[in-house]
Design a protein that fits this description.
Blueprint (H helix, E strand, L loop, with lengths): L2 H42 L3 E3 L3 E2 L2 E9 L2 E11 L2 E9 L6 E8 L5 H19 L12 E2 L1
Antiparallel strand pairs: 1-3, 2-3, 3-4, 4-5, 5-6, 6-7
Helix pairs in contact: 1-2
Length: about 140
């Protein structure tokens, strides 16, 4: 491999690592606190709240009413300044539902995180009572 290629790959790896670190920092600084704020209210209303997956590049947040009734939201680093958000909804009497969207890391702020958690929870509860779910958030592009 030429010197330029070796040098270029080193810089590329450094850029990718820095973006992955920014993703983790954003989840810790913005998303996790919103999740914690919602946890008390939801816990008081029958939800079991957890973060079953917490590893580099991926983090999940689970809102569970029963073993077969829960919302799982998974944030995954997907590339330079981008992430993927998966909402997996399990409600008795319905097929599991998956919504996958991609977004820009720069768009994650407290308001955005709050709206994503609220939209996912609304969708989950709508399925529990048999209502047709609303359209996904326009702030993310469905994949």
């Amino acid at each position: 491999m030429s010197n330029w290629k070796e040098s270029f790959l080193g810089k590329l790896h450094e850029a990718q690592s820095e973006c992955a670190k920014q993703f983790e920092d954003t989840l810790d600084r913005v998303v996790a606190p919103v999740f914690e704020e919602m946890s008390s209210f939801l816990g008081d209303n029958g939800f079991k709240i957890s973060t079953p997956l917490s590893e580099s590049g991926r983090r999940s947040f689970k809102f569970e009413l029963a073993e077969n009734a829960y919302l799982l939201m998974i944030f995954r680093f997907s590339g330079i300044a981008e992430f993927e958000l998966r909402d997996e909804v399990f409600a008795p009497g319905t097929e599991p539902m998956l919504e996958k969207s991609v977004g820009r890391l720069a768009d994650i702020d407290k308001e955005w995180a709050t709206s994503q958690f609220q939209a996912g929870l609304d969708h989950f509860v709508d399925l529990l009572v048999g209502r047709k779910a609303e359209e996904p958030s326009a702030e993310l592009v469905e994949v």
